[in-house]
């Protein structure tokens, strides 16, 4: 448990770049450097976490903790990954509330994002080499990549391709959710003056039913907190999104910032508890579900389809982030240098991220 806590605490402090980057860093630490998991086991966990709502990289941290140290490891890993980001975002939220809405923030993303691109590319290559061992698996991953780039929702992609694999297995044996979230329809109750109970329920709903990326999270919060209830202004939501982008750890700690702006420290605490709490339950149940899946050939085939399509989704995220990160020749050089270091040396991804931060700070000071 101490090993798991120490690792996830480090990743919570250094984990810039969003869920795909977090998962790539976890793979680097748990598969490549420590040997806790094989690439096949790791990708099975990635595919499985894509089937449940909530923050996927946080749920991966919990699942790794559960596999390594049991139920206590699940709690320790999740808390260790979440708490650093909550503390950092809480401090920024306090400064924002006390000293105005236009804080000076260094654009560290200039240096960090190219490094993140290299980390994800290295993980996609390594995981693909280990998992895509036959033409059908490769076709599944490419199909998922194409569907993602065309704008199809992630959950639709992985479930559809998983079902195809399951049906193929059923045929062999015999011969030998489309929405990003499902609202609780409590708008009438939530539209009144904000209270701790109402705020908690908003974020409990997010943590319980939200699938997809941070962009889906932003769309949901805009609907619930700006349009439907007026708890936030559009400007405050944009500032919350900016804070989520420049801080390490789970993107869902945006809830901490928003809760603070609405109802102070107590609001921040309950918003954070509401959005992350369901994941601890889901991951515990998911582990039992995986045991059931592995005992049935068609279910195992479904899980294989989910795994291969999840790898295609990671490649799609890499393409999308590459457009935003590689903006000039120097960022291409930074990304290439980081990728070479990952391939040719034993240097860990968590050491490259601070280097990217320094590059971003120097760039901000010079430019």
Q: Which features characterize this protein?
A:
single chain; 367 residues; mainly alpha; 80% helix
Give a verbal description of the structure.
The protein has 367 residues and is mostly helical. The chain has helices spanning 2-14, 19-33, 39-49, 56-99, 109-131, 135-149, 154-175, 187-190, 196-209, 214-228, 234-246, 254-294, 297-325, 329-344, 349-366. Helix 5 (109-131) packs across helix 14 (329-344). The longest helix is centred in the N-terminal third of the chain and has 44 residues, at 56-99. The protein is globular, with a radius of gyration of 20 Å.
Number of strands: 0
> How is the quaternary structure best described?
single chain
- Name the shape in a single word: globular
Structural class: mainly alpha
Poorly predicted tracts of residues: 176-189
Distance between the termini: 45 Å
The total count of helices amounts to: 15
Q: Roughly what percent helix?
A: over 70%
Write down the Rg: 20 Å
User: In total, how many domains does the architecture comprise?
Assistant: 2
Strand coverage percent: under 5%
Mean pLDDT: 80
Largest sheet: none
Sketch the topology as an H/E string, one letter per element: HHHHHHHHHHHHHHH
């Amino acid at each position: 448990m101490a090993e798991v806590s120490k690792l996830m605490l480090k990743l919570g402090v250094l984990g810039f770049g969003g869920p795909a980057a977090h998962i790539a860093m976890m793979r680097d630490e748990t598969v490549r450097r420590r040997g806790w998991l094989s690439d096949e086991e790791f990708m099975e966990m990635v595919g499985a976490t894509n089937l449940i709502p909530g923050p996927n990289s946080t749920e991966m941290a919990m699942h790794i903790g559960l596999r390594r140290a049991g139920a206590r490891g699940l709690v320790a890993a999740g808390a260790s990954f979440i708490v650093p980001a909550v503390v950092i975002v809480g401090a920024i939220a306090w400064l924002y509330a006390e000293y105005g809405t236009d804080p000076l923030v260094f654009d560290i993303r200039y240096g960090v994002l190219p490094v993140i691109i290299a980390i994800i590319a290295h993980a996609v290559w390594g995981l693909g080499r280990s998992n895509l061992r036959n033409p059908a698996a490769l076709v599944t991953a490419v199909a998922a990549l194409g569907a993602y780039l065309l704008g199809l929702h992630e959950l639709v992609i992985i479930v559809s391709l998983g079902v195809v694999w399951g049906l193929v297995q059923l045929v062999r044996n015999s011969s030998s959710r489309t929405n990003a979230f499902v609202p609780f329809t409590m708008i009438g109750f939530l539209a009144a003056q904000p209270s701790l109970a109402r705020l908690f329920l908003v974020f409990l709903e997010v943590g319980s039913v939200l699938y997809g990326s941070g962009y889906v999270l932003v769309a949901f919060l805009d609907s619930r907190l700006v349009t439907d209830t007026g708890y936030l202004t559009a400007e405050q939501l944009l500032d919350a999104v900016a804070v989520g982008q420049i801080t390490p750890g789970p993107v869902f700690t945006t809830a901490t910032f928003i809760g603070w702006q609405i109802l102070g420290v107590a609001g921040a605490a309950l918003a954070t508890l509401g959005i992350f709490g369901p994941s601890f339950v889901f991951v515990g149940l998911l582990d039992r579900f995986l045991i059931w899946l592995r005992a049935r050939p068609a279910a195992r085939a479904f899980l294989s389809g989910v795994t291969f399509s999840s790898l295609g989704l990671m490649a799609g995220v890499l393409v999308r982030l590459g457009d935003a990160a590689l903006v000039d020749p120097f960022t291409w050089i930074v990304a290439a240098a980081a990728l070479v270091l990952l391939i040719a040396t034993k240097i860990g991804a968590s050491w490259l991220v601070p280097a990217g931060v320094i590059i971003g700070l120097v760039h901000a000071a010079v430019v």
